Fold:
Amino acid sequence: MGADNAEGPTVTRVMVVDDHPMWRESVARDLATRGYDVVGTAADAPGAVRIAAAVRPDVVVMDLQLGSTSGVDATREIVAAAPDTRVLVLSASAEHEDVLDAVKNGASGYLVKSASLDELDAAVGRTADGDAVFSAGLAGLLLGEYRRLHEAPDDAPTLTERETEILRLVSRGLSARQIATRLTLSHRTVENHVQNTLRKLQLHNRVELTRYAIEHGIIDESG
Amino acid sequence: MLPLWRGVVVFRLVAWAVAAGAFIRSWDRYPDHTAAIVLLLLMVAWTAVVTIAYSTHAGRRSRMAGYDLVVTVAFVAATLLTQPLTDLNESAPILTSMWATGPIFALAVERGRDGGLIGAVVISAALIAVRQRFGDQEIFNTTLHLVAGWSLGYAATTTRRATAVLREALAAEGATAERERLSRSIHDGVLQVLAIVRRRGTEIGGAATELSALAAEQEVALRTLMTSRPTSVGDRVDLAATLRLRATSRVEVITPAGKLMLSRRIVEEISAAVGEALSNVVEHAGEAAHAWVSVEDLGDRLVVSVRDDGAGIADGRLEVARNSGRLGVAQSIRGRITDLGGTVDLHTSLGEGTEWELTMPKARP
Structure:
């Protein structure tokens, strides 16, 4: 399970962020029936950041369209304030750029809202364990993003051949287990490769943000 | 257009005031004051008529400017009742003065350049006819009328076109805003409810499962509808958006973020090939099989994959399948992709489903 709780057995503490009350409560209730401790809910980005800081959840289940506020911003701030907190995006499949942005800004997985409760349960569990939750759609987005970065002439991250191969198989709907069988790798190795593709992108994004901040005098180079 | 019409109306009113002022200033030069005053009063009455007409939408759309021209020519002719022709032929002031040029501007605004020129010719001819003279002053006035009619007409036409373009742009913007508003409200309401129905239905089981499946189908259809945008610019079409339209509750379409603009023919062929591969999935892997359509951009090439999680075909049976016509669709798909300068690979094995891999150059061979 995720963060270590000082008080006894580790029950994963979850927070649900969605601007639609009916959906938010439905997800919260479903997760509670699956044994998760739903420690908070929020309807917009500022609320999510504030409540996450107060309740310190292990996993935040985050929608990206939060009325006039953005789940991407909330993801960045929550992960920056508490790197142990993991964000799982649960969103409509439509918002491609938003999903990519959320992942670059620290979300460790993405699930479409049309996923079943079993899938959501498994995804939250894996997110708490520190694994990346990868749908075929997210793999496709990442492949596209690395392609775009590849064409940019700076020190952008690149995928190894093995990583490309694995992302491609994920994007075609194969599960980690199927990929492991096909490539005669261990399941763990496949998971690690997938996580690496995500981490490299997040690291690159942080470097870019810092560079931007220094160039624009938002932060001081010495400090 | 409204400011131009306002200009025409204001000009007419001011011009009448100038005509009245000129009459009072040259009081002594008018032999028949009664006729002149009656004519001035009739002029102000007509000015009122055109002011009202040009200020209303219906009036501007009728042939009012044409009638204005005819009536104004009549007024110019009627000045002969106030001044003897001999005086007018000399340098006597003409009662209608600048007021008579009003129809030139009205016609220019109503009918553009040609209207302005016709008005200028008719009014200039009328003035020349009344004075029975064609000297420097007449040449100067006629030129002025022609230039004014032509340029105002040109400006009116340009303004009209610009207004039409602006109106279209505003309408398009309004449509987009309305679409976004609808999308947002669908996203906030209907979609959430459908998602909840789908989830609860599966949990309850039994007959509710069917409801759940129906809700799931509509959910995907609505999402697809909400995100489908105009996909083409000229002869370039967005392959990603085109393929996304094929998403259903059993078919997932995976694309890079953003647009993938290619020539229309390539997109049509790829889309048709994907469609054939997908109908093959339904036919042979069963209604319950899931399929993934993925598009990968490799810079100069594209890889499109259509994979299903059906039973697949055992290695040894591939030839049998081919002979039994089960792979007949392969020929059609291969034909389309080969025409684009690409290749088709078919991977299948028992228990692993079937995967079509279409690789082709992004530009036409």
In short: Chain B has a mean pLDDT of 83. The domain at 231-361 of chain B is CATH 3.30.565.10 (Heat Shock Protein 90).
